[in-house]
Design goal:
With about 220 residues, the chain is of the alpha/beta class. About 50% of the residues lie in helices and about 15% in strands. Strand 5 and strand 6 form a beta hairpin.
């Protein structure tokens, strides 16, 4: 049976770390919507050109355009057995669009959608954001407190200097949490009512969360 895996949870809850690992574990493509948009723009596809126009104007990429780009990606052959979708959906409108996409792609096959909710204390989230660093070359995420690099401020993989986002402050973090809970939290109830929601405790080490994630997906 095809596994379609999506993830819910506030910023810095650990989704990115776990979803990348999960994709490798299952041999599924890890589809990060931000990277997908950037790739379309870099390839100068028709959708990429339109997306770039909106981004350059300081506007959000239109809902239908994002859905079209994601739909094209999910229809590719490497998604036949399943996929790990990271960063989408983030609103009820996007969730309904994803249902439409999956219904169209899966009309002749048996598929199972699982929505995993990363439940975590917001105080821990604030600390994760404040101490977060990333590699500008490979995108690897570090945390000065919870997951430091072997050499301070240097990426373990690329040996380049790590960067800290200017918006990774406590004040902005709290604002992002409020936005998340207003816009995305209703999806928890939506997927719960569909009978596909799996909740895990995202407090703990990477390995602890990983083991909880595997358990809810494989049960």
């Amino acid at each position: 049976m095809k596994k379609e895996l999506i993830f819910l949870g506030p910023p810095a809850c650990g989704k990115g770390t776990q979803t990348g690992r999960l994709a490798e574990y299952f041999g599924f493509p890890h589809i990060d919507t931000g990277s997908l948009l950037r790739a379309e723009i870099a390839k100068e596809t028709e959708e990429g050109k339109i997306a770039k126009f909106h981004i350059d104007q300081g506007h959000l990429v239109p809902l239908d355009l994002v859905a079209t780009i994601i739909g094209k990606r999910l229809a590719e052959q490497d998604c036949n057995n399943g996929y790990v979708l990271d960063g989408y959906p983030r609103s009820m409108e996007q969730a309904l669009k994803l249902d439409e996409i999956n219904d169209k792609i899966d009309k002749d096959i048996e598929a199972s959608l699982i929505a995993v909710y990363f439940d975590i204390d917001t105080e821990i989230l604030a600390e994760r954001i404040i101490h977060r660093q990333s590699c500008p070359k490979c995108g690897e995420i570090y945390n000065k407190k919870f997951k430091p690099s072997k050499i301070e401020n240097i990426c373990d993989k690329c040996n380049v200097e790590l960067k800290t986002r200017t918006d990774d402050t406590e004040e902005i973090a709290k604002e992002r949490f409020n936005t998340y809970f207003e816009q995305t939290a209703p999806l928890i109830e939506f997927y719960k009512n569909k009978g596909v929601l799996r909740k895990i405790n995202a407090n703990g080490t990477i390995e602890e969360v990983w083991n909880r994630l595997l358990k809810v997906i494989n049960d």
